[in-house]
Design a protein that fits this description.
Mg(2+) 2 binds at residues 112, 115, 279. By secondary structure, the protein is of the alpha+beta class. The chain is built from eight helices and 17 strands.
Length: 333
């Protein structure tokens, strides 16, 4: 069987006019960084990379060693290629400027270097999430403002999931495509063309320990699912919660479902739990590209105009029919 690598896929996308030469380089570099992160993640205790870094990030969260390592790998890999105007990361307070000795390009890269860090020490899947925006025209200086564009402006988005195998999942606005890392060869092989989220599903993902904090529409929706066959939905639903957004979204992209981190009383003051620009937006673009839907409960995630880089947002995404139902419950209330 002839194997198509990520490199060949990207060159073909470039020939079809869907990605520029610079965007192709950007995606190649991100994929290369992801391979390096995958190596570190998979060595675990053997490389001494588990455990706490002993520092907090800008959001007051304790950083794990692998959060710091993954962040450094992505920053360093993307500094010198000349394709970027600037970077933003969950682990960095403000814009990461391209060093003066390197040329600047036209794109902005945002990332969550290591998603699901609470799962690192217990050997459960974690991931990397990224989003690509265009640097606004006519801007030579790159500030936080340059990044504050709605998710609908994303040029590309994707994630890597470090599970039993490492997969790289990508959209450049023409469907969702996944690649599996061949560790011996060191290359990503095109294994999942045009992933789609089935419209109907019987699987949901939510952290049910927050149930007492939920808003009425979320309580109503989850309660109806839990009533199963004898309830208003007339069938049983199954529940899954990995606590790595990447792993939960990967399941939804693979076999359908709904994933929710809604607004609740616990996270109301912050506006939600998940970060808009490097968690919610890239996942929303992927899910929409796969035929699903993604809302805050009240509006389409990709329409949210960000007010700050590390803004948080409620997230409800997955199979279209389910997301529309729970969004309708919010809008009725
Ligand atoms: P991160 O590790 O990048 O801070 O993200 C963790 C996020 C997300 O991956 C996951 O869905 C959620 O936090 C889990 O939250 P709970 O621990 O509240 O379930
Ligand atoms: Mn995260
Ligand atoms: Mn993270």
């Amino acid at each position: 069987m002839r194997r198509v690598t990520l490199t060949q896929f990207l060159i073909e996308q470039q020939r079809a006019g869907r990605v520029s030469a610079d965007l192709r380089l950007l995606l190649e570099v991100v994929a290369r960084a992801v391979k390096a992160i995958s190596v570190n993640v998979s060595k675990g205790a053997l490389a001494g990379v588990l455990g706490e870094a002993g520092t907090d990030n800008v959001q007051g969260e304790a950083q794990k060693k692998l959060d710091v390592i993954a962040n450094e790998i992505l920053l360093q890999a993307n500094e010198w290629g000349g394709h970027l105007a600037g970077m933003a990361s969950e682990e960095v307070e403000t814009v990461h400027q391209i060093p003066f000795d390197y040329p600047k390009g036209g794109y902005l890269l945002l990332f969550d270097p290591l998603d699901g860090s609470s799962n690192i020490d217990i050997n459960v899947s974690v991931g990397t999430i990224f989003s690509v925006l265009r640097n606004p025209e006519g801007r030579t200086d790159v500030t936080e403002d340059s990044f504050l564009q709605p998710g609908s402006e994303q040029i590309a988005a994707g994630y890597a999931v470090y599970g039993p195998s490492t997969q790289f999942v990508l959209t450049v606005g023409h469907g969702v495509h996944a690649f599996t890392l061949d560790r011996e060869m060191g290359s990503f092989i095109y294994t999942h063309p045009f992933m789609t989220v089935p419209d109907e599903t019987s699987e949901f993902a939510i952290n049910a320990s927050n149930a007492r904090h939920w808003e009425a529409p979320v309580k109503r929706y989850i309660d109806e699912l839990q009533q199963g066959k004898t309830g208003p939905r007339g069938r049983d639903f199954n529940m899954r919660w990995v606590a790595s957004m990447v792993a939960d979204v990967h399941r939804v992209l693979t076999r359908g479902g709904i994933f929710m981190y809604p607004l609740d009383e616990k996270c109301r003051a912050q506006g939600g739990k998940l970060r808009l620009m490097y968690e919610a937006n890239p996942m929303a673009m992927l899910i929409e590209q796969a035929g699903g839907a993604a809302t805050t409960g009240r509006e389409r995630i990709l329409d949210v105009v960000p007010g700050k880089l590390h803004q948080r947002v409620p997230v409800i995404l997955g199979s279209r029919a389910e997301v529309e139902r729970v969004t309708a419950y919010h809008l009725e209330g």
